[in-house]
Queue: 4 jobs
Job 1
Amino acid sequence: MASSRVVLTPVGASAIVGSLATLLLGFVTLNLLLLVLPVLVLGVVCVELLAFDRSTRGFGPERFRWKRLENSSEVGIDAVGSMALDIELAGPRSFYAEVFDPQPESFEVVGGAPRLVTYWRPGTPTRLAYVYRPRERGRFRVGPTMVVAHDPFGFAFRMTMLENRWEVLVTPAISVEEAMDFPLVGGRAPAEAYRRRVGPGSEFRSLREYEESDDARKIAWRKSGIDKLYVRQHEEEAHPEVLVMIDCGRDMRLGEPGSECLELAVDGGTVVAGQAIGRSDRVSLMVHADQVVEFVPPQRGPPGADALTEAFGRIGLVPRPFDLARALETATEKLGVPTTIVLFSTLLSPFGAVEAAVSRLRDRGHRLIVLCPEVAALFPAEPDPLAAAAMLFASEPDVRSIDRAVDRLRAQGVPVVRYPPTEVREFASEAHAWLHAQESPL
Amino acid sequence: MNDRPWLAALIYPAPLYVSILAVVQWWGGSVPLLVGFALALGFGLLTAVGVVHHPAVVAGGRVLLSFLAVLPIALVTEFGGASVDLAVGVILGAPFVWLEYAWRADASPGTRVLTLELTFLLGVLTIATGSVGAGTTSGSPGEQFVSALANVLSAQVQGIAALITGGVATSMPLGSALNVWYVGLAAVAVAGSLCPVFLPQTGLGEPLPWSWGATSTPTDSDDALLAERLALRPGQREALASRTLPAAPSGVTAPGFTSVIIGGVLAAAFVVLAVGAPAITLSVLAFGTVAAVLAVAMVLSRRLAAPGEGDADRPGTAEAQLEEPGPGGPAPGGVSGAPTVGSRAETSPLRAAGSASGPVARRTEP
């Protein structure tokens, strides 16, 4: 956007109006002293405005050459990101300028400054640089940079914007724990627990002849003939696969700003993912509302942690309800090996045919565990008894709905863990440890 | 309050001079006149220096002084000599009640100019009243002053009416009421009041960098310490350390000084014209004012581009464009300005393993 005209400030307007009003008084009295004062002030203001217009003629984005450098595109939450911007004025005249790089409110500037007011000469490079600490997860946009030319006396200004928006992804922190820190599994060190043998897994081992009990999906059609069928044998992995499933439907907005159920879910999910990766497990991520928003295939190791971190950073609320049955069906389709699914959801959305979906999930060898926040504890207790009673009354339908959903799932043999909002990381960590203990290959 | 009290001290001598002259000329031993003058002068000074600052008290005092000044004169037949003397005393001290608006730090240029003009108007009225005289020795000093003031205003109105109807003004007492000392002091008052207006600042009063003579390039030594504390990468440290700090224009004169000079020249030319060719002065002034206002209006209304022609919709010129945007950086549709190193996650150092709440143990991109 170019500044299309000189904009008069209140100071400039008051100078013009005041001098015209005093000129009127002077006309009434015809006194030289009373006429000279407004002539002086009006003269200075008008000359200054005309001079400012001339010095900033053609003021617009074309007048500038700019380059962003050392700009962070991905920053961990509570870590430090940087922004730097080189701008050069390509016009013939100097003027006072204010350069401002707008950032989101959740970015706390900890060094440098995103704003500069200086006298700008043509050809003189100007560098704006600052470091910031993001306080919220998500995708944010910095810029566009605004440049304001100021009249030296504050009578007027001109403004333009440099279209240099920059996207920053603020990701949650995934804590990757060392596998050695974990206790022995079944009496053996974790490294030894990984034994190559036939079983459910993703790594191919050999072919054998087809038997009636074999899963038809494992038939190796290219190697098979008309009279003989072969199936692929895979190596069983002692490190199970984990799918972190995040409900991003509209019911996940419950909670105080900054601590909504979705943020709790992301927090818990990063703990599970971090611990799983630390133990050399493969971790996948599915973000689901009424349909899949994002699916990250199984990942492992530091590159996997990177990919998952980015995906966690992109998670945002979707203004549609969560369809648990469909989410489980989708997971069943996408997962090739028996996987433990850790679902973070409020379970507020109405259920569909979830029993059938859970049953199909089990048939494929998958397991489901649900972590659900205690809705009643999402908001701080009200000191006023009347307010507390009102809050209780307002939240009661949701609490009952969730209780029914929990009962339905537990009736299907699905473990549902209700966690206090302030302890999501601890509960997620414990849940994963419990899962891993259950998954012992022996 | 003003952060430059010495400027305020330049403003008071002019109204003080003409007020004291008038008091000396008109008081005639009248104590109420002196009391009225002292009341107005004292109240004005107390509010100006902030001794009396409660808004209700300030407003109440001004309203009371207004009543004291207007009522006795409007109802002179009812109130009589002493109250009229008091009213005249208040009128003579009236400029001090509002004079603080000519130098307060938060006063806009328009407020300053208007305050000065009203102060000078009262001074000119006082001088004219002293020149015309009461024409009678009966009545109290206040009544004589009011009588003289009425004569002045009446003559002025008749003169203006004559000019408007195309006739010749036989007498314009306000137009010819000038005192050399008063003009000199008024010039000093104008300088004191308008000096802060003509200093480099933004429209919000934020000072713009400026200093006499050339200055060295400022640096911020805290940036280096901060970069080390935050464990920034070398490229980031270099960018932060080399950021531009506010720079002042080099040169002896303040920016915009030329406009002040030209404005002064215009005012001086007007004075010369008024003295040398008074017959055409008013016409020239009127046409000049209209031309100036029209020129400013054209500047304010001129558009560089038609509405809706956003620069975001057209690509940057070859001059503006340095490199094509790199991957993952600028939003789609952005005009040039290449990101160079779009660094990945910048994270704090690896924390101890085993901490469920410990964040951020990740490598950074080189």
Note: The mean pLDDT of chain B is 77.
Job 2
Amino acid sequence: MPMVLCHAPKGGTGTTFVAAHLAMGLAAEGADVTVLTMAARDTMALHFGLSQAISLPSLTAPADEAVLVGGINLRYWHRSAEDADLLPMLNDLGYLTPGKDRVLVVDMPSGEFRAALRLVEHACAHLCTLTAQPDTLALLPQMFGETGSEGLLRTAFVINALDETRRLSRHGAAFVRELAGQRLIGRIRLDEAVPEAMAMLQPLSRYAPASAALHDARAISGAILPALESTAASWIAPTASRAA
Amino acid sequence: MRIDARNLLDRLGRSDFAYREFEDRFTDLELWPILESLLRDPRLQALDPGTPQGNGPGASSPAAERAQPSITPHPGTLSGTSASPLTKPAEEPLKVLFSRYEQGAQPALPAEEAPAPPPPQDIRGLLRRLSQSGGDARGKPGEQGEN
């Protein structure tokens, strides 16, 4: 079971949204997907149309306590993300073995960058969600410095909440596009349907099946598929959408 | 999604639509100081912009390749001293990127031949000179109006 790590240099970029829809997209491709949210205050359930009142079970909770949405197993791990037991446990549970039949999608809070660095070494892909705004772009050098060239080999980028009607947003996106090249595997357009769906406690696919953001998120799921069976240190999606 | 937008999409038989293309040519980008600052940061060099199928570092993206034919580095910039079109864009992508700003800011003439006063329509060059001379121009791009 390969692991896809979703982690961004800055909070508020939509990493949880991307992780949730990545899981949905991979599940639609027939994968057995587990989503592991590591944020103490997470909103993962909302993206699946669930109320925040529903408590997700721990990663180690028995199967009869599982919360399944569309076949996707939702779990949390709120102990320290730097817990030394986490990686051995993931390995014992079979989450670190390549193959797209079973996939673990990890939603890591932006502040847990040390834990992210540890996990990225064992992940088949690191999906980094950015916005095209200057406060996010300004953190890229720090992130690159911390991650290093080896860690960046597994990194792909997504621009989220892109408003192409705004000049600065377009220019920021163009900057990322030129910087990341083929490692930019897609963009997700700013879409009011995303918060509206959460407010309606409905998954986006039900609330707004014509949503532009939903369409874009599905394309990203397709672009990440080649990483799942890759055993190489570096991967890239040869047919990735470059709509950004 | 607003119900009127959804109804419109239903009538058009589309799942989404773009009512206008806002794509900018990369060479038309503003010289936002933060982007210039980022381009000068050596840590950004750590990112290989994509090595599909092990083609080696520096494989340029289709977008970058599309942009290359019209790009000419300005003499004295990070991309080199030649005024001829770039021939090795993949080896120094960020430097090439920077050179595009330079290209957008000033005409591609040899340094010794460059006239002191730039063309009056060269707004980016003006902003750049103001930025270099005192920093007072930082933030000015945002004052040029949206879109």
Note: Chain B has five helices and no strands.
Job 3
Amino acid sequence: MDTPARLSDEGEGAPRTILDVRGLKTYFYTDDGVVKAVDGVDFSVREGEVFGLVGESGCGKSVTALSILRLVDSPGETVDGTVTFDGESLLELPEDDMNKLRGSRMSIIFQQPISSLNPVFSVGDQVAEVLQLHEGLGKDEAWIKAVDLLDQVGFPDAESRANAFPHEMSGGQAQRVMIAIALALKPSLLIADEPTTALDVTIQAQILDLLRDLSRRWKTAVILITHDLGVIAEMVDRVAVMYAGRIVELSNVRELFKTPKHPYTVGLMESIPVLGQVKDRLNVIPGSVPNLINLPPGCRFAPRCRPRVENGLEICIQVEPDLEPLAAGHLASCWLYQDHDEV
Amino acid sequence: MVGGVLPPTETSNPTWTVEFADVRTYVARRLLQAIPTLLGVTIFSFALTRLAPGDPVQLMTFDPKMTVKSREILRHQLCLDRTTVEQYFIWLLGSQECNTRGLIRGDFGDSLYDKRPALDMILERVPATLELTGTALLIGILIGLGIGIYSAAKHGTLFDSLSRIFAVIGQAIPTFWLGLIMILVFAVILRWLPVGGRYTLSIEGTKNFFDHLKHLMMPAFVLALFWIAILSRYMRTEMLEVIRQDYMRAARAKGVPKRKVYFRHGARNALIPFITILGPAIAGLLSGAVIVERIFSWPGMGRLAIDAVFQRDFPLVMATVMIGAVLVIGGNLLSDILYGAVDPRIRLN
């Protein structure tokens, strides 16, 4: 399955790859059965780019992110695949080295900024902690640097706000603190897992601006996880669409919006309301996401797929398609575009 | 500055500093509130001593040669011939005739038997009781916390199951029985530890630290066992709750090693509700000490209290109750102040 040709989502003359994920599988062993939350995900992120990971709730976006950082807790377990970050194979790294890497070369921010901050420590302490850990700074030096970082993420009175506790902050402020922590050591990759979902719309734009500015300034690549296609359109360079634990389409953002290929992506695009267009009902994708314990054989989207019925494709419900290139840098896993022997 | 200045809706909230003065006024207010509590304690316990059967004068004059007349003289001298209400106010406010200045002037009255101020007799015993209960509390907290955190971190494992069984046993074993069995095993059969007392009496009157420790070990452990069991269960529950919190994962994402995440980020949060149980624990230890001191001949307040009750030594009983009440109120206040100190979301006002 995993042939070198699969790396062809790298366009020509592209910058170096910072992260390469191949065949990643993370399963959760629950009492009801094995939940295949991430079931064979391939993608790579280039140095300094903003890479989008989009899909509906429960499709495995967050688990993918946590698997890359090896933060999946029991009963979850990454059972297969490789994650290569800056030449290092993360899934084989000793835990000590992984601790050194987390928060310094690769970091993550989460959807719930307030609950992601420890309620009993001041925010200044929490920014300083990451500096003490990775830069070996003393308490006072780390504090000074933490105040400086808080200033850079947009606190006008950073010096006094550093003493504040998380419960004294708004969601937007807390997310700024999380960004300060995540970017404190200028990592080469930041994973932003739905960073604005829990925030007010007006604050969302500010946080996204801040993320974009800082990542550009410090040449940090960003994996932006979201279910919001608007955010994708505005922020990212390339995007992968996930469905039921797999990537179904991967392309640069312009092409994805202009010519979506996979029926699921097409369905997503059609379900967005368009300004000025009057519709009684938005288009919806019929059916619902399959149970990740008892996945249907063949393509996971097949039971909901209209083009499959229209084209009378039988293979879709029997064999799972691979993610194959359709054009330079545009991949999709769909039998509509792939050669197959009809069974 | 990148990302623009924050809009006015996101400006700072000025209430985040704790003034030391706040804590002082808080303590002062709590102490004022303690006065009615203590007054209630005096009324209830005074009534109980007088309602209980038994008469100190009868006990003191258990002598066939004693006449009814001289018994009545003694009763009058001790002011025990007044009504209960009168006696209460004499005890509380003082009376020249009855030779007491009253509780409000700091006079707890004299022991009926020893004819010494009851307060002096108690204060002689308080250090021994504090030593015993303090050690037991320390053992209870350290071992209880350790077991609790560890079984939460390893929940579902053999250690976790064993700690659960231990907790059930620890809570179920009666103190007096465990005390006697331990004396039998460690003092009588193995002869490792002394049977009782606070230290070995010597003619020179010198005190040896290790000798002292050997005397303290067994009673402190017996007193602590129940609290090890309770506190370990409590801490385990709190810790399991904390482990699921987002900030624990966020701390790991910062590169904090797993053990440090548990002890620095986790335990600090789990301690917050844990501290609320310390007040009741202090009260529980003080009442448990009454039995343990008796079994191990520990010269503390508890033993004094039991003897006073059996002898119907009313002033001494009242004095031990009052000092006990003050210690319990103090323990609760301490746990509330600690509560505010570890949780920045709680402000003492």
Note: Residues 1-19 of chain B have pLDDT under 50 and may be disordered.
Job 4
Amino acid sequence: MDITALIPLILSGDSRAYAEVVRTYEHMVYTVCHRVLRSTEDAEEATQDAFVKAYQHLASYNGQAKFSTWLYSIAYRTAVSHGRNRRMESSSLDDMHHHPKAEHVDELRRNEAAHHLGKALACLSPEDSAILSFFHLDELSVEEIVTVTGLGASNVKVKLHRARKKLLEVLNKELGAEAHDLLLEHA
Amino acid sequence: MPELNDHDLDNLFRKAGHCVPRTNLADRIMARVAVTPLVRSTEVKPLIGKRTWLVIALCAFALVGMLMLIGTTSSGSGSGLGSWVDEVVERATIPQGSWSLWVIGVSVCLLTLAVMDRVLGQRSEGLKN
């Protein structure tokens, strides 16, 4: 479905059209927020904020970038901002951040691959984790990642290279056999 | 056991897919959207277009240039149309060495007009909305 065709409808006040946008991008936006924040509650809150911001400023979307890239950009910046605010809050919330295993219980039930990947991504910085996700999962180009994150192209390439190398190291060392079995099992 | 490579990483990401929120997140988003007003575009369309401004700027600089040129080459004598031109030139001739002030003055005027143009454009957009 062409999402950009819904924009005039949304701007004229059709909330059902925006519900369609939310349904289409809900998981993608939530994934970005979860990669950055690593907490279900915070990611859900950031996802809500991102969609509300996108709705408020929909009139400023000029169609130069893809709609998904524009939305990712809002989601990523909202999540980073949430993360910054959270760091300034009480240490009880920080404790949750330092125990990624506890955050992946739901994922373990839902999907073994997601569990392994989440566990390995928890070893990377939130920014690197999000960049890898953009590249490998959402198949964003380096240029699109530059638009989303606001980082320079060379910086994105370096981060992508290093993060990928580190993730492979973690997967090979700590989850090597399990991850291999998983990939072969579902190949 | 062979080590995982970039291709395996692609597979793993695809297999894992997107994270799934716990509950009815979409409904909660739409509940917030329902009470959120849309922010209208703040894009301003100037009343005078870029091309017109370029023509005005060229005319202004041509006028200043012409006055400078005539001012330095004028003989100061003649009759009829010639004397009228001389009179105009005499009144408008830029004193030696102060042409840069004229250029600055003209630029400031143009800038002021451009700002006024944008403000008026913004107001008219606001009235339309």
Note: Confidence is low (pLDDT under 50) at residues 90-102 of chain A.
